[in-house]
Specification:
Blueprint (H helix, E strand, L loop, with lengths): L10 E2 L13 E6 L1 H19 L4 E7 L3 H17 L6 E12 L2 E11 L9 E9 L3 H11 L5 E10 L11 E6 L4 E2 L15 E4 L1 H6 L3
Helix pairs in contact: 1-2
This protein binds inosinic acid and magnesium ion.
The site of magnesium ion has 5 residues, from strand 6.
């Protein structure tokens, strides 16, 4: 677990500003905040191009998706304000949980959110932080299909290169990332590190320090 063969190593921590309380916990920065924002701006453009013309219900997968959701919607709003074509946008939230410490558990729990039945007949954009095995998304998509939405698209900021993948790929993705446990930009380890702007590799010491 402590090493893998992926040669994408990101950036040294010292090149960027990280909160003092997390300095000891992180190995490297994989995606700096500014780069996340630039990529998100382009994803917004691609999504509006494909889904535009119809009302979109953006469904945020809490909690890890909240930063990406908020920033993506800001970019879609900016397009709506500045283009000839615009698309009405409403929001909805769902809470799923599949992780304990740094291990994906076999069961995906839905622990909150609105009734999925409100999505019947709608164009739904699911906004997720990271796809690893793909199990979370596959579970959510099968739950959602029971409610007969008109269209469902999935955007995930990150997709992990991992042998544990089921082969599931989202419709849109921000970046492919190496098979490390990543934190920051709302991605957490047992609720810590959501207050970190950059996406970083969590080190082995920190996994013990913040273990439940
Ligand atoms: P999957 O079901 O294995 O695809 O896992 C997806 C979910 O696990 C995501 O929604 C995340 O909440 C969580 N997850 C997977 N990998 C990481 C990671 O590296 N850091 C933080 N959360 C992760
Ligand atoms: Mg998530």
């Amino acid at each position: 677990l402590a090493s893998n063969n992926d040669d994408e190593k990101g950036y040294e921590l010292d090149l960027f500003c990280v909160p003092k309380h997390y300095e000891e916990d992180l190995d490297r920065v994989i995606i700096p905040h500014g780069l996340i924002m630039d990529r998100t701006e382009r994803l917004a453009r691609d999504i509006v191009r494909d889904m535009g013309g119809h009302h979109i219900v953006a469904l945020c997968v809490l909690k890890g998706g909240y930063k990406f959701f908020a920033d993506l919607l800001d970019y879609i709003k900016a397009l709506n304000q500045n283009c000839d074509k615009s698309v009405p946008l409403t929001v909805d939230f769902i809470r799923l949980k599949s992780y304990c410490n740094d291990q994906s558990t076999n069961r995906v729990k839905v622990i909150g959110g609105d009734e999925l039945s409100t999505l019947t007949g709608k164009n739904v954009l699911i906004v997720e932080d990271i796809v690893e095995t793909g199990r979370t998304m596959e579970t959510l998509l099968s739950l959602l299909s029971e409610c007969n939405p008109k269209m469902v698209k999935v955007v995930s900021l990150l997709v992990k290169r991992t042998p544990r993948s089921s082969g599931y790929r989202p419709d849109y993705m921000g970046f492919e990332v190496p098979d490390w446990f990543l934190v920051g930009y709302a991605l957490d380890y047992n609720e810590y590190f959501r207050d970190l702007s950059h996406i970083c590799i969590l080190n082995e010491k920190a996994k013990v320090k913040y273990k439940l």
